[in-house]
Prior knowledge:
The protein is of the alpha/beta class.
Amino acid sequence: MNEKDFQKKQAALAALNYIQTDMIVGLGTGSTVSYFLDALAASQYNIIGVTTSTITSQRCAELNIPIVDIDAIDHIDITVDGADEVDSYLNGIKGGGAALLMEKIVAKNSKENIWIVDRSKVHNTLGAFPLPVEVIPYGSGQLLRQFANKGLFPKLRRHPGNNQPIITDAGHYIIDCHMTTISNPYALAEYLESQVGVVEHGLFLNVCDRIIIGDNTVEIKERQQAHMEIN
Ligand SMILES: O=C[C@H](O)[C@H](O)[C@H](O)COP(=O)(O)O
């Protein structure tokens, strides 16, 4: 196991400390969450999961973790998810695995959100990871043009194998915005949310309550209060 995977696994194991039997647990998507699912399946906790992607649902089936439809429950106690990048305010970029829409729905309906990450993902400001934006296929070419004019360096995400656009679980495309630095994530989120054809974006602002950074010594950071950029 390489250093990054070691850190992911350490973070995932530490997240288990926040789980209790009978909880309804939101289950994120990705390689870090995969370590968490393994740990959860091996634990003594009887929980019910709410999944954020087809792939996580499949992993739960393989691991015998019971899951429930999000619309069949009235609350989610806690969600454990990965992230692609996290800043010092615990804001983040998600969607590297194209699961951002369902991840955001589950996160917004959770009483508490924990992100598990390796140290390479923690930066002072966001932007090093390309920002995924989930869009309706119809008119996506127009959005690509608008985003380019806005200086967002957009690129339609395609399968490396056949070069076809990747399709999300909800049937949408992903446009990745390669900006390198995001000076005001709140203004960018507002702009993206105002564009017709944008379904959701990967900026998760004031969502994460606690990050667990895996390392030889696991580091835990809690969000103190909602952060807003003052223009
Ligand atoms: O769409 C995918 C999710 O936002 C993932 O949680 C994120 O990409 C992190 O994935 P990984 O743990 O594989 O780096």
